[in-house]
TrEMBL record:
<feature type="transmembrane region" description="Helical">
    <location>
        <begin position="220"/>
        <end position="242"/>
    </location>
</feature>
<keyword id="KW-0472">Membrane</keyword>
<feature type="transmembrane region" description="Helical">
    <location>
        <begin position="378"/>
        <end position="398"/>
    </location>
</feature>
<feature type="transmembrane region" description="Helical">
    <location>
        <begin position="156"/>
        <end position="175"/>
    </location>
</feature>
<keyword id="KW-0812">Transmembrane</keyword>
<protein>
    <submittedName>
        <fullName>Amino acid permease</fullName>
    </submittedName>
</protein>
<feature type="transmembrane region" description="Helical">
    <location>
        <begin position="187"/>
        <end position="205"/>
    </location>
</feature>
<feature type="transmembrane region" description="Helical">
    <location>
        <begin position="301"/>
        <end position="324"/>
    </location>
</feature>
<feature type="transmembrane region" description="Helical">
    <location>
        <begin position="410"/>
        <end position="429"/>
    </location>
</feature>
<feature type="transmembrane region" description="Helical">
    <location>
        <begin position="89"/>
        <end position="107"/>
    </location>
</feature>
<keyword id="KW-1133">Transmembrane helix</keyword>
<keyword id="KW-0813">Transport</keyword>
<dbReference type="InterPro" id="IPR002293">
    <property type="entry name" value="AA/rel_permease1"/>
</dbReference>
<dbReference type="Pfam" id="PF13520">
    <property type="entry name" value="AA_permease_2"/>
</dbReference>
<feature type="transmembrane region" description="Helical">
    <location>
        <begin position="30"/>
        <end position="52"/>
    </location>
</feature>
<feature type="transmembrane region" description="Helical">
    <location>
        <begin position="353"/>
        <end position="372"/>
    </location>
</feature>
<dbReference type="GO" id="GO:0016020">
    <property type="term" value="C:membrane"/>
</dbReference>
Length: 464
């Protein structure tokens, strides 16, 4: 009954090779899956909020957040190529740091994947309503937002957010190959929209708007980095697809690192152009900063395309993050830490059908009834803690199992993993105190579930 009992890696590898999930994904699918998860709310919404916090130095804030993700991405790539099984960092922790740590990190990932899906669904709803309003279509106020989220307006449910969550759930329950095809198409469209903004916006940049470059000092720049870190959340969802990849040793590192590089270049470029067109103070209260920049430049018709790109961009984020959540839950259920229904595979679709729908309905309800501000508070801290743990786990596995074949190795170990840990802790220190309190409450609930159900039902306990 040790809290730190670990799973046998050889058994995990056999289970990954002989599992029921279809192995249909290649490197292009994985890169596009990563881009699908990353480019969404971050580039279309958070750029405005970040500009108010850092000013034109938002470009540097994106680079700092990308560095933290980059070091963690290298650690993820080594783990994913060495132990290519479903479950992402939850599975890696179970093999190296022990069951109690694996449970904590799996519980954390529910904050990242599940609540991110709900939060982005709420953002999707806002852009959808804005686009519909452009055609003269307006939904009744009562079904446009969660209760209490719009001051002075009586609202009962955010119905568009619920609908998009359920539609994504239906797609995911049907099959991973079909989901990947839909994701790839939408990712191609939204990258085209971002490139269109860059191509048009660069001609309207006024360098005077970049002065002063750092109006709020280094503290504002670092605070913005902790905020826009949310914009990079999602590349690790690629690792949750490990059991469905044809050549995981080669393709997973390509998917993880490739998607992060592409998105970082796009983020920094868009932030520079956006703050060069519009004085940063004018982003106050704006939830569509990229469109605002184009409108400011007199390019209203292109701003409409950006709104459409935002909707598609957020749809792919919801798709990939919900997918990641279902695979994390699948892995935890297969290990006995969650009820077995969540890992039951559909005989035709070869997906965890019931588990996918249970998760989809739960987070659809959350998207419909919980305001966006409340959802966003917990996401970053859960992700940063996960990134720190995977960096530690890489070093532990290097020491305990040096014999394992590693197709990809983190360069510069142990320095790079330790830098990853340091950067993650540094950004966590810049999050609000209320976020830390809520995070600790979430962990406390997880501990109650672990000691009352998961620990005694774990397969490691039942099989000795």
């Amino acid at each position: 009954m040790s809290l730190f009992r670990t799973k046998n890696i050889e058994n995990m590898l056999v289970a990954g090779r002989t599992g029921d999930l279809k192995k249909v994904l290649g490197p292009v699918d994985l890169v596009l899956m990563g881009i699908g998860a990353i480019i969404g709310t971050g580039i279309f919404v958070l750029t405005g909020t970040g500009a108010l916090t850092a000013g034109p130095a938002l470009t540097v804030s994106f680079m700092i957040a990308a560095m933290a993700c980059g070091f963690a991405a290298l650690c993820y790539a080594e783990f994913a190529s060495t132990i290519p099984v479903s479950g992402s960092i939850y599975t890696y922790s179970y093999a190296t740091l022990g069951e109690i740590v694996a449970w904590i990190i799996g519980w954390d990932l529910m904050l990242e994947y599940g609540l991110a899906s709900s939060a982005v669904s709420v953002g999707w709803s806002g852009y959808f309503q804005s686009l519909a309003a452009g055609f003269g279509l307006h939904l009744p106020a009562a079904i446009t937002a969660a209760p209490g989220s719009v001051p002075g307006v009586t609202t009962f449910i955010n119905l568009p957010a619920v609908v998009i969550m359920l539609l994504v759930t239906w797609v995911l329950s049907y099959g991973v190959r079909e989901s990947a095809r839909i994701n790839n198409l939408m990712v191609a469209i939204k990258i085209g929209v971002v490139l269109l903004f860059i191509a048009v916006g660069v001609w309207h940049v006024k360098p005077a708007n970049w002065t002063p470059f750092m109006p709020f000092g280094t503290s504002g720049m670092f605070n913005a980095a902790a905020l826009v870190f949310f914009a990079f959340i999602g590349f690790d969802a690629v690792t949750s697809a490990a059991e469905e990849v044809r050549n995981p040793g080669r393709d997973l590192p390509i998917g993880i690192i490739g998607s992060l590089i592409v998105c970082t270049l796009l983020y920094v470029t868009v932030a520079a152009i956006m703050t060069g067109i519009v004085p940063f103070a004018q982003f106050a209260g704006v939830d569509h900063p990229v469109s605002l920049a184009l409108q400011y430049a007199g390019q209203n018709w292109i701003a409409g395309f950006v709104d459409l790109g935002a909707i598609l961009g957020m749809t792919t984020v919801i798709l990939v993050m919900t997918y990641g959540q279902t695979r994390i839950t699948y892995a935890m259920s297969r290990d006995g830490l969650l009820p077995p229904l969540l890992s039951r595979i559909h005989p035709t679709h070869k997906t965890p059908f019931a588990g996918t729908w249970i998760i989809g309905v739960v987070f659809a309800v959350i998207a419909g009834f919980v305001p966006l501000g409340v959802l966003a508070e917990l996401i970053n801290i859960g992700t940063l803690s996960a990134f720190a743990l995977v960096s530690v786990a890489v070093l532990v596995l290097r020491r305990t199992r040096p014999d394992l074949p590693r197709v990809f190795r983190v360069p510069g170990a142990p320095v790079v993993p330790l830098i990853s840990v340091g950067l993650c802790l540094f950004l966590m220190a810049h999050l609000q105190a209320t976020t830390w309190i809520a995070f600790l409450v979430w962990l406390a609930i997880g501990m109650v579930i672990y000691f009352t159900y998961a620990r005694r039902n774990a397969l490691l306990h039942k099989h000795g």
